[in-house]
């Protein structure tokens, strides 16, 4: 018997849409000969990544697509962001997303993004080295741009505390407060406030900020924390499915979700996640990774951003580009690999944000029951042989298709 | 940004069917140009109002269509009937459906419907005014024909008691008994029996009955209670969805469900719920209600009754009539309103009762992904872009379509 097929899960982030006034969508309008060819070779359908009518975040959607019920495992964005920047989070840690920001001498936030600072590496190093907290260990790492992740590790912590981000400029940095009566929440709120004070002290005269001020730029003289989450215990994909998994993605959040689920992140040069991202490099990397891993998740960003920007032309163009770069998928032998192409959610131009409209999904493999669908888009997919499935079912279907599923009963 | 779209949910009660020996159904056979036009403008599918293979009652189906899990909220028919006749039920009340009936001098029920009496208003008034119960307040109201609703309000009541309806003639009025060991059930059973005795006393010489006897008609000299239910706490549609809701319906049960869910009942002259019902008036009322309400549920009766009567021709004719009266739906601007047309369940001619066969559903709005379906019937709908959904998903989908849904995650 042959070894089980490998699995390549391609997620075109935010690809699907609602029809515009001409009754079309970027995916339908885009010239996508490669995706259309794949559709004609496979089985197609539509998918509610969480459930019909439930608007997914990128985080909850990806968890669901990996077969992890977000109602059980999604405790907030912090843990996944922290894992995404490479912090090895553990169950029980409390993690946050953070912004480097600018405040004035009265502690009023004047720029929530510190002039979109990019040079945060030295600052982050100083914070990691100099902050000393009683009762918890600090794990701090910068992310892209003005972003960072903060993790507190110690006994008896809680994520049920308020954030320090005032959410708008012109307001002071907020004091974190416990949101329940427990001593864990109080302890954690005290830690967060102590951390914030120490960080402000470290940043006040930091060389990076001295330089920025001399250049007339906004200094990164405070941190704003939000998205607190207790790191959950997540069984990894090897334990859950018996597969070795890898993730190829530019977005820290997606990388973080992959890592939290025990997948190895495979970095790609020039993978920025934007319109200019090195999609070809990611596709190549993901294809090669099938030699070493059973399951590879490839996330392609760009369409989602164009949806958030409400830019029909950019979204269409990004999808054309993605299609061209995905041409190597046609060279993958459907005898040995299950290729799944889908999206994590719709990001309609008319909404400018995620919607619950189902996403098109196709599976290409020798074992699938092919259908009459000949194009990859929202309309054609709904006529396919998969009918309508849920994100939580996807991995189970794929495990069955690759003969990895266990029989339930006798 | 525009205000969110309004929502019009049209439920053609019991519309769908199983094929007859010619392979057709009343809905397929009926000439329905307006519904067919709507199908061609929208997205279509089939829907299990509760779950595949679960035969819905009208009550459980409507709850499910409104997004209220009947397994949680359906405690019996009594509460919804009582709300339907206009009793302002409260969580914790125990409510019943009741029949006015005729018994002989030995207490044997000789006519469960008291000669299909209609003049029950004075009798009901006498009961409400004269019955005095220890330990509970009585709320009594007549319904259509020989029907009425009874509510007991007080501390420590239970619906876990047997009914007093013997279910067939030739048997005595049944004594209500506690169905568990708790003192609440015993107290309530005693109340019901005490209530029945007092009602029989009041009715014995009641002028309405004296007149009926003189006319050779059966007197309404007892009440038969059934469908006991503890009134549940139901969050209203404004709390649950952030919408102001209204219901246009003839059936007390549907009105009651709407009211229990916090929707306002908008009465329509001549809306009887039968073949002769003023459907046009209901459609007009529902359409106008969209000016004042975010969400309007319109229930059209008739097809269900024809199904119960196993009358293919009448059901077909009713559906033709409903189609003609629904023509104004075509004048509603799909930019600003989501129109949903569906049924609460199938009532197949061959069964003469509700079945679990899925119902056709269509949604018409600028944001939906249109499909190739060009007719509104059970067969065409199954080829539509919605594929197969569940009743509990409907409101979530509509809330997402009208941009009212909250994002889950980030």
Average pLDDT rating of chain A: 96
Spans of chain A of at least 5 consecutive residues whose pLDDT stays below 50 are none
Strand order of the largest sheet of chain A: 10-9-11-1-12-13-2-14
Distance between the termini of chain A: 22 Å
> Topology as H/E string of chain A?
EHHEEHHHEEHEEHHEHEHEHEHHEEHEH
Work out the helix count of chain A.
15
SS content category of chain A: alpha/beta
How many β strands of chain A by DSSP?
14
Question: Major β-sheet of chain A, in short?
Answer: 8 strands, mixed
Describe this structure as you would to a colleague:
2 copies of one chain form a homodimer. Chain A has 410 residues and is α/β, with parallel strands linked by helices. Chain A is built from 15 helices and 14 strands. In chain A, the strands form 2 sheets. Chain A has an 8-stranded mixed β-sheet with strand order 10-9-11-1-12-13-2-14, with helices on both faces. In chain A, helix 5 crosses helix 10 (252-260). The longest helix of chain A is centred in the middle third of the chain and has 22 residues, at 183-204. Strand 3 (55-56) of chain A pairs parallel with strand 14 (407-408) of chain B.
